[in-house]
Amino acid sequence: MRTLQNPRWLLVVSTGPLVLLALLCGGEYGVIQSLLPPASLLRWQQCGLGWAVLAGFTLGYAGWSWATGRRLGARYAGAALVAGGAFLWLCTACGDELLPRSVPRWMVPTDVLVYAWTFVMPTLAHALLLLVVHATPADRPHRALPSFGLAAAVPLAAWLLGLLLSSLRFFDRWDGMLPGQDLLSGALLVAALALGPCAFLFFLVRGAYIIGLNRPDAALGIAWKVVVSLVLPVLGLAVNAGAFWGGLGHEAGIFGNFCSPWFYGLAVLNGALLCCPNPQRPGWRLALLAGRSALLGYTFYFFLVFLPFLPLSVLAVIAVGTGFLMLAPLVLLVLHVQVLSDDLEALRPRFARWVGRAALAGGAALLPLLVTASYWHDRQVLHAALAYVYRPDYARAYALNAPALARTLAVVRQHKAGTRDLFMGSQQPYLSAYYNWLVLDNLTLSDSKMAHLEAVFAQRTAAAEEGPGGSVFPRPGPAPAPAVLRRLTARSRYDARQQAWVSWVDLEVANADGGPVPGEYRTAFALPAGCWVGGYYLDINGRRESGLLAEQKAADWVYAQILHQQDRRDPGLLAYAGPGRLRLSVYPVVGAAVRRTGFQLLHKEPLALAIDGQTVALGTVAGAPAPAGPVATAGGAVVYLSAAAKQRLPLVQRQPYYHFLIDASAGKGGLKAAYEQRVADFLRSGTEGLRNGAPGLGPPRFTLVNTYAHPVPAGADWQQQLDAFPNAGGCYLTGAVQRVLADAQLHPGPGYPVLVVVTDAVAATVLAPDFDELAAAYPESDEFLVLSPGRRAETRSLHRALVPQPLGAAAAGARGVRAWPTAARPRAYLPDDGRPAVVLAQPQAALSLGPGPGPATRWLAGLWLSGYGQWQALHPAAADAQRLAFIQASFQNQLLTPLTSFLALENEAQKAALRRKQAQTLAANASLDAQETPLDAPTAVPLDDYAGWLLLLGLWAGYWKLRQKSLQRA
């Protein structure tokens, strides 16, 4: 422990944590600064000055000691204890002013007071250890028993003093005689809370340190080591898990989730190595040093976990009979360091100095490296599965490790749960924060996505995936009152430079019943092709606030937090709910007051826009000439066809063919014969009317579907392939349908697929709610069929895949489509619906932002962004690499895309919070989530686990003061 006198330790235990404290608190202050009243700003300045004094003092003393070759002395230790304690007292006393109630809690997920206590405690602990070293010179004998006796006397004296003052009615005797009585009782309380734990910890650590110095006889030494390194750690883990009262769950604990057998195994191994007699042979002693060093990370981890609780140690010992277990990591660390020091001293005559130091450093790094390697493996497994499901490469054959994914999802679920438990936690302090940073990019993986992944890889039935057309913001508890559209108007002008219309759509919304309960207006509406959103506004407190264009997940998260808090902060959100469909939300709509909002549209042709049953005309036919022909981006990669231009394209009829998707998942091996018979009967009967008026059916194709899609080669015996196929995994129909549709659009030809799903229960498969992103791949019809047992084929729509449709005429084969650009050499087929269309000229080719200037006009930029959205659906893996460039192009042109949202906010603090969250989401994997679905509380960091204990301290202090006042009045 005498190495702690080296000035370099101050850089590790003091300067580093204090710098991190400044960065974290500075980030929080930058977000909420505009919301703070003058008194709070003054408190922030005072605390900042206190931090500067503390940091400057420690850093300056470290530099002076290093330059002069002096070791850290007792005067520094005492001064550091006083300065650090004063700084914590200042922060704690000003906590309500540093973070007033007017600041929404979602903006500051971790209280600055928690930061202060967490990152100043290393300085105080180091100073306390220095005092122990200086009070216990190694050149004179010491006895441990008096130190342990004094340590036990501190909580006993505190308990007796409390009883004595209460029985003597101490404060009542001085009632009215002391003008600063409240100040006196407050000062006494602070002194008791500061001096009591310091004295208790000082004598406790000194006693443990003396035992190590005295090197007691073998029997006493081994007994001491067994108690400290083996009995107390295992007992502490059992008590934390509720083993003696059964009050906690299997995956939760008082201080965190330490229920894994690994924690118990490492505790036993650590105790065995520390209690092991030292061998005489140098080689074995070196190996023992390496083993003991390897477990130093385990000891140090629990020391860090309990470090913020050390000031509560006296109260814990008084209040809880097993409270002394909180102190076991501190005593164990002293013992562990002392044993390692003895090993180094014993090896110094036998080996070069660097050998022992290398064994110590290498061993100490072992556990952190193993933990990091385990977490990195989880990251690779999870991100590979996310890429396959949400960003697949349709040309690649996948073979992922399903058991490894199952284990990883179990770990993810453990680390993401229970972040705000007060008396028990299901996370692991610090480790969960590290895991969430390394594996989840500081975001989360929603429960619905985890269930989806489990269903894909392990045939677990997952709930229907929430699609764009579903409920966007479901909330727990009572929902805001509904609001309705009262008035819809529009303003249009023709921009000759862009050769496009610029229209503003204005909405007036109000509560349906005019009641006082704040309401929310939500709607979704269709947007025609060739129409882009170029702006958004919301009237807030008499001013018109323009919407900020932000990354969609970050914008959704900020909007959801404001609604969750229900603090009437006036957000408005406009985003895509799916291809060609927008969603609009405004909150709050209070009483009978009318809220006004609106958005800008850029469009080539006049159009009629319908929202909530009201229709408004944008532009006029007489106001500007309609485009005579196709309009394309530079290079012709993306083409816009007006309704008239598309109508002039040749009308052709393509030959349909059945593409059977056969369920080959786990547990369906016994149904293979039934599937074969069902398909054969269907092909013989030619039901569902596809032959009526069609040019004839092409040869059928087959794909065997489990976790992956396995196409049967053309001309091969599909029955033989099915019989030999090993059934495993889930039935991931979504991926199979996507691959078939993407191939149909990438390779347009004279035939088109009619999908036929063959399964025993379509509800047990993994099927997306819609395939709107690939709508260009099925221009003839959106119908597909499901062959279920015991009944005729069921018709469904690719726009609503989870809902059975009424049996239609199934005239897909009789419908003509428009061939673009010519019938002889078509590159795309378009539905004959009289509507405009956006077409990719070369869907197989790469589509990316070039280094040169962008499109000449905003409308052309919107055309390029729209084409990129189509290309992204065909090449999700390649598009993921260009996600940031796509979002940046949206920002530069101020045009809404499926990856961005317009968000109108009330104040600068909300905008700062949005920017902070956006930086986080842009740096993370695009398949991860910013929040749960349905809406969950703001995501907390594991440091929030300590807020409950600080709250207990505050409650105890408040109870003490109230008790004194009640005694004074008695």
Automatic annotation (TrEMBL):
Keywords: Membrane, Transmembrane, Transmembrane helix
VIT domain location: 473-603
Transmembrane stretches, start-end: 42-64, 76-95, 115-136, 148-171, 183-205, 226-248, 254-274, 286-307, 313-337, 358-376
Protein name as it appears in the record: VIT domain-containing protein
